[in-house]
Amino acid sequence: MLLLFMPLVVFQLAMMPVMAVETETEGDDTWFMLPINGEGASTMPRDNFMIQTHVDISEYSNLIDPTPQFWLSGDEFKYKFRKITSVSEFRYGISEIVTLGARIRYADAEGTNALNPNGLSNANASMGDTDLFLKLRFPNFSTPTDMALTLGVEFPTGNIDETPVTGTGGVDMIMGLHLTSELHRGKIFGDLTYRFIRDYDVAANLRPEPRLQFADFMHVIDPRLANTVNQTVDPGSEVFWNVGYVYPFTPQFRLCGEVTGIRGMVSRINSVNIEHSDYNWVFISPGLQYSPDSDFTIEGNVMIPVSDSVPFDQSVYSVDPSTDYWYRLGMKWHIR
User: Fold this and answer.
1) Cα(311)–Cα(243) distance, rounded to whole angstroms?
2) CA separation for the pair 126, 287 (Å, rounded)
3) Angle at CA of residue 322, ends 319 and 325, nearest 5°
4) Which residues neighbour 149 within 8 Å (Cβ) at sequence distance 6 or greater?
5) Residue 105: φ, ψ to 5°
6) How many Cβ atoms from other residues are within 10 Å of residue 284's Cβ?
7) What is the mean pLDDT of the chain?
8) What are the angstrom distances between the C-alpha of 284 and each of 195, 197, 202, 233, 308?
9) Which of 170, 101, 183 is nearest to 129 (CA)?
10) 224 within 8 A of 4, measured Cβ to Cβ
């Protein structure tokens, strides 16, 4: 996935003559031109705030056969997962190149229970995990490309006592690389974020659901991680990547085109890989932004799946995977 960003990185390094560092100022509003799924390398102007909220709607399904040795024996059922997540994000500019941020989630999730396969049988509406992060934009030596690094911590404020879970149940680390390249008309953005989900020990009296989560979008339920008593469970870490282009075709309206990827790594129990526990989604996301003024934006997009390798879809237990369109609606508000 790093190959997606190598041309921009090489261009940035090649265009670094030793000269005065240029930074964005409070009078420069072009930094507020941001993608919908990603964020690019932009940081907040000093002593400025940004409030961002959005709602994600996501769903997938596949057919589960608990007895594959007896194909189509009548015990098959449709596994369906639906999640609506509300995310509130707050950013503050410590300096022109350093931004402090927090991300708070609330999720309403439903998923089929293997013991009761008729319809959406499990539901959990509760707070999700909370992120605190610091974003550092590297000095720009008069090039059209910015780079930034994000370091963050995800705290276990989500509910893991109900199913589907809305948190990972542990303190996890986040690291991200971000790029923004300014064109004659519009901007190109790139994001690559890695979420390190630590392993955990399962006590004999617990029946945990798996701690698997992609960024702001999904929790993925793999029944093979349940009832793993007296064992060490290592959920696969997650990678999010996004490449986007924002084109301002009027002063108020901007078109957004993004390609978004979600990659979940293989999970392990006692250091042994769980077969078919990884997953991969790729979406094409056309969107629209409306800014009545330079400090406020309303935005939305539809995420169209072009590749949907959902969890355990290659397993003998699962066939006919299907990912529906996902949606994101939200707004950004810049407070000077």
Assistant:
1) 24
2) 28
3) 175
4) 135, 136, 138, 175, 176, 177, 178
5) -120, 150
6) 14
7) 77
8) 22, 27, 38, 33, 12
9) 170
10) no
pLDDT at residue 204, as a whole number = 35
What CA dihedral angle connects 15, 21, 23 and 25, to 10 degrees? -140
Residue 272 confidence class, pLDDT cut points 50, 70, 90: confident
Structural domains in the chain, CATH included, are 2-335 (2.40.160.40)
Compute the distance between CA of residue 290 and CA of residue 255 in angstroms, rounded to an integer: 9
Q: Which tops the pLDDT comparison, 206 or 54?
A: 54
pTM: 0.78
- Please report where in the chains the tokens 């301002």 appear, as a residue: 248
pLDDT digits (tens, 9 = 90+) for 156-211: 888 877 777 777 777 889 999 999 999 989 999 999 999 887 765 554 333 333 33
Q: Cα(260)–Cα(214) distance, rounded to whole angstroms? A: 12
